[in-house]
Each structure stands twice: as C-alpha cells, then as structure tokens.
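quick one before i forget lol
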Amino acid sequence: MPRDLEKEIDGLERDVQTIMRTLRQIQERLPPAHGTETDCGADVFPETHPENARLIAGWRAAAEARHDRVEPMLHCFASGDKMNLLLLLLERPRAVADLVEAGYYHTTGQVHHLLKQLITADFAVHLHTADGKHRGHYYAVNPRMEPLIRGLIAALTAIVGADDGYADGVR
C-alpha cells in the first residue's frame, strides 16, 4: 500500500502543534530565568551549560541517523490516547480486552492500532503466555524503555503541575 504523505504530514503538523502548545504552557509556568535582565534593562545571556553542546550534537546525530525511531517516540508523547495506554501498561501487562474495558477506548481495533504505534516506538512489547494462569496475548511496557517513560511522565507532571489535571501523566 503506498504511503499517504499528505496524511503523514498532517499528523506531524498536529503533533508539532500539540507539543508547541504544551511547551507554551510549561514556559508560562516557569519563573523568569536568572540573569536574563540587568537592573538597567540590558539583555544578558548566561553562559550555556558545558554539557549542552555535547547533548545537542548527540541528539542531532541520533535523530539524523535514526529518524525512523525518533519520530514514532515523539508521536507517542504527543498523543493523549497513547499516553493513557502507556500508563495502563505501566500498571501491569494487559490483554487488549482489558485495555478496552479500562474505559479509555471504544474498540479492540483502536487499541491494536495504538499498540502497533507503541511497539514501533519500542515503548511496548507483545508477550505470548501459555502458563496455567494466563493464556493468550498480552502487552507490556518494554522493560528497557521503562526508565525513560517513567522519567518523562514524572518530569512532565512536575513541570505542568497536578492542579491542571496532569497528575495522571496526561490531560
């Protein structure tokens, strides 16, 4: 099936708008940066942290070399539905029917579609179980990615604040 580039671009534009909206909300809540203005009103730029140059260069190299992995990851954190699914999977591994029953989703097809995107981003894994207690297909947070997911959710929650309905990690 050929790629629908217009649809992909529209999706990326929506994701960028969501991220920009979130960044503006975060920026509004931050106190003024220390040292950005002197008593006489002249702009003063504080020195950049020495690790920033290394961090920026590393990000650019990774993003350029592996844009096929970076974009799906960013899409996941820009989507409330995917974030809700990640939060449910952080609680415990779940079957698709359990995820639908959790009340966030309407159909198993919707859940499968979102799970496919989380797996593509390497945030979730598909488990096959055949023990006496559990049978079938379950999904869980990728253990290798769990520290990153938990850290980002905690950081976003702390920055935006629990008073805005972000206490659960998403709005």
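fyi The mean pLDDT is 77.
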